[in-house]
């Protein structure tokens, strides 16, 4: 009888087990590579900025883009379509601002309602309407994308501090961020001057100077120089006019306020007379 080589009974099973182990090892390697890649991306991503909103809640400043069917990339509200906005601290308040693209420049704008509700309300309630007539701030009507973004900010990031009323395109307005900052400084000076007869040194723009121990004349500061209106000077002023400086924008607003307050035409609401 021919001899036969003996084969262990479990050899076939061993081959199958080895194959299964190899498959599991390959899957584990793939999962490890995926997890390592995800961890590396997460570690490389910058941490989101977080601030404490008016309700005392921690709110991230990172924003999810707002969907839009408008594919035009050259329109002025393209950044609002992306959901782009940020914050500016003015007088201790976080003021949200959005971006408009004008002539290729990214300009910062603030909602008029948001500025009045949170920042300006401390002073506007007390100041006479004529004080606001000393200056003129240009405003613009918001677009549909800007309205969506402002509602997103009010609802998700500010806990409706700006009211439950929705922002609507064609109805609500925005103004330049730097104009809001300057307007706040202006009404703060007006309020403190009328209420307490003081001008904060850090925001001193105008004041009064006594000439010849008799006349009190308002002045405005420009380039660290105190300048007075020409119409307060009597006599021949041709020589002085050669060195005259034209006042515009906010310098003119401060000068108007101090001139009107000198004449007694401006007052706080509820106040009959100015005391100087």
Q: List the helices and strands in order.
A: HEEHEEEHHEHEHEEEHH
Task: For the record, give the distance between the C-alpha atoms at the N and C termini, rounded to a whole number.
Answer: 134 Å
Number of helices: 8
Alpha-beta content class: alpha+beta
Shape: elongated
How would you state the average pLDDT, rounded?
Answer: 74
Main sheet makeup? 5 strands, antiparallel
Could you characterize what this model shows?
The protein has 276 residues and is of the alpha+beta class. The chain has helices at 11-44, 78-81, 112-124, 129-132, 144-157, 177-196, 238-241, 249-263, and strands at 50-52, 58-60, 85-90, 93-102, 105-111, 139-141, 173-176, 206-211, 215-222, 225-227. The strands form three sheets. It has a five-stranded antiparallel sheet with strand order 3-4-5-7-6. A three-stranded antiparallel sheet has the order 8-9-10, covered by helices on one side. The chain has a two-stranded antiparallel sheet with strand order 1-2. Helix 3 (112-124) packs parallel to helix 6 (177-196) and helix 6 runs parallel beside helix 8. The termini are far apart. Residues 1-8, 41-56, 62-71 and 268-276 have low confidence and may be disordered.
